[in-house]
Amino acid sequence: MYAPWHVCLLFLLLAANAWGVDPHTLISQYGHTAWRVQDGYFGGQLTPAVTQTTDGYIWIATSTGLVRFDGVTFRPWTPPKGKSLPYINYLYGARDGSLWIGSIDGLFHWKNGALFGYASKPRSSGISAIIEDHAGTIWVTRYRINDGMGPLCRVAGATLQCYGEDNGIPGAYALGLVEDGAGNIWFGGESLCRWMPGSSSVYFREQQKNPAGNGVNRVAVGPSGSVWASLDGIGPKLGVQYYSDGKWASYVVPGFNGANVRSDALFVDRNQTLWVGTESKGFYHIHDGFADHYGSADGLSGDEIGSIYEDREGNLWVVTDRGIDLFRDTPVVTFSTKEGLVGPSAVSILALDDGSVWVGNGDALDVIRPRGISAIVPGHGLPGHNILGMFEDRTRRIWLGIDDTVMTYKYGRFSDISKSDGSAAGHVGQAYAFAEDVESNIWALTYVDALDQVRLLRIKGQRIEENIPVDNFFHRAHFLAADRNAGIWVLSYDGKLDRYRNGKAEAVVSLGNADGVVSAYSLYVDSDNSVWAATSKGLYRWKDGSLSVMDSRNGLPCSSIFSMIEDNHGSFWLYAGCGLLRIPASDWATWLKSPMSKVSVKIYDALDGAQPDSGAPYQPIASKSADGRLWFASNSFVQMIDPGRNYTNPIPPPVHIEELVADHESYSALQKLSLPPLRSELEINFTALSYTVPRRVFFRYKLEGHDEGWQEAGTRRQAFYNDLRPGNYRFRVIARNNDGVWNEEGATLDFSIAPRWYQTRGFVLLCVATGSCLVWIVYRLRLRQIARAMSARFDERLAERTRVARELHDTFLQTVQGSKLVADHALKDSNDHARLLRAMEQLAEWLGQATQEGRAALNSLRTSTTLKNDLAEAFGRAIDECRTQTPMETSFRVAGDSREMHPVVRDEVYRIGYEAIRNSCTHSGGSHLEVTLEYAHDLTLRISDNGVGIDSNVAEQGKGGHFGLRGMRERAARIGAKFTLMSSPGSGTVITTVVPGSIVFQNSNSTRFERVKSLFHLR
Description:
Largest sheet: 5 strands, mixed
CATH class of the largest domain: Mainly Beta
């Protein structure tokens, strides 16, 4: 039996136009997307108006106004301030990029941000249709005319020039509007009119007297002067009428009877196919003499069709009472029960040389031919109930596994095979796979359910020559393929590849890898006698003892391969878990030479119609028909692709920048935009207008003045920036469509960001001036600091010289002077030897004392703590020197941990302490000296003795001609230390020096001290 005749349309697969939906494909086989009113997309009910402007946007009219659509987002259109639009009947995108809006109150024109109305007074007329003729003139038809002018008008500048009865146009209203190839304008109304200035024709005038009809609703024109008209009503002279050869008649084709259809939407697409939208039955697609129907039961948003429109990419838009639907071509075409298959169990597929395609479909055998789909079913020609494996041999005989028998088909008849003795073969098992070897033997792999046994049959002619149980050497065998030289190949489900030849079975190789065994799905031997196995872990190739695998490491998007087949151009197609994959012949050849090389892969996934499935373990599950099309069994349906057809979408998508959002405030994307100071974030929203597969539109963008290169946004339609500096910027965005065609020009947006008060040039100049002043002040302070440091160093040297001079004067020089007096006195009477001897003894004593005093002065100059940081050690040496000169008992105590000190301050402390210790040892006359050095927050030095003490006047002012006490006070003052002396006659002396830690200790102000050391080259 045959499927309904309308499916014959499927098989007139001619070379399809790259633009427009394939006219030879059923509506159910197109890609379909629906946006329903109930899902809240439109904000109101739809009116029968949809169009596309030259910028690429789709415009949709609703009961609340206009909606603009970019393929992802519906955006309500806001008219200019102070203006509004009434209820919209019709939309038209003109070639100049403007939008024409037909409403119940007249015509409106939107261009370059301005809205202009042609209505002369409120509710003067309603606009029913708009077209632009070949010369670029805008024409409209009107209804409810109140201004006394005709129903057909053209736009002339800022006015409408209308035509009526005086111009041969009858009736008070007009509906529908179309121009034919000869420049005639067709429109409906009370009658159907064909009009051209100076020429007109009227049809269906009798409708004015027919109470069953109210006139002509819509008109469509086709090639060769064909015209379709939709009349209001149902009947032989109503419904959809067709004009051809000077005659009108109800339009009737298989699957469509125009007399039974009420239509408000007639549309002829660029492939000259007629689309008929009905008032309550969905819509029809008519081409090549067949009609195909689609309604809400098939997935359409609604059954009442308001309008049909074709966009510039060839996608078809259908406006219904409950939504809007888009239909588009898909490279991979699906055949299921909707298209005429008997059932959802397509387990094997075989394309024959006569152009037909056989489908093992459960309990039926579907045969796809150019004239339609036929089905052979049990009781009507099929000698069984279950179709399994299939095969066509060299003699064009078809072998089939039917139930648990093997049968052949030729010349329209099924025949049984027999045993070698000629008796009926009977139940040989379920035949999974067939193969024909070089000796024309037919091999069949069967499973005998009753014995739970797999058998290999060798058949010659119609007789079984061998019936071999193979479970012992072909474990879980499922797939067969003939070797090009001798024997056959056998592949098990778990990936074991074996060969059977010359009556012997031999194990060849076990597929898989370190991850374990694989699941095998099909077996194929190519013209080079390479053996291919499609498995769950890649495509394996066995050739001349070498095993290689093509998988994700070679660039495949997934490793689960169900079947493979070569097209007529040498490319290989893999039916895989992630889609239908095409590998070019050049890449395939490269991989054969180097299995580690990468291959380029074209992926056809679910968006392209591919719905792969591993299917049942029967052969074949991939086949190539005589016209080069590739067919795949997907367990529940059949899929087909034509490698000879170009599926590339050649139209680069228009790119638009829609808005800029700065600190959550939206700005229109003007060509030059000035933004206030930016506080934090900036967002730029953009889009690209390709409606075929919007989810495959990819973007790149770059912010000149910020980004160094292009940023890959993927499918994201926003760019985000944070904390942009004030200045001028240019944002660029480009996009590519679903097939990788780029719009390199893209869109640009120039904008500037104003500076905040602290980012202005004046503020910057003020900061520079202030900074310069501060630098100058710091510089001056630094100079003063250096001068003070140098002065202090000079004072130190001067003080040291003064001290040495005083010491020499008070001690050494006086002793030398005294020695001179002794010598002079002795020389007055050189004959007095006794006196001379005494003088020499006294002179020797005084010279010894001078030597000690000179050595003491030298020691005071040379002894320093600068070579070491340890004051305790230095004071220890001074105390030891005291012990050698006097019998005083001494004690020395250090409190706290020694700390790093500035060497200049440290030496001053040492000089103070050394002077105090020496004075105590020399002049105090005491028996005990105690020295204490304390490291704490400050540095404290305490020196006390129990000697005769110091007179209060001497303690305050110093001893005349001596500079010891005065020098200690001066040193203490120079380093900011506190110097105290407590003494009285007979009570001993206590000298205390306290140096602030911020001055003496290095870590208190290390930077300042390091700079002082550097300036004075101190060590």
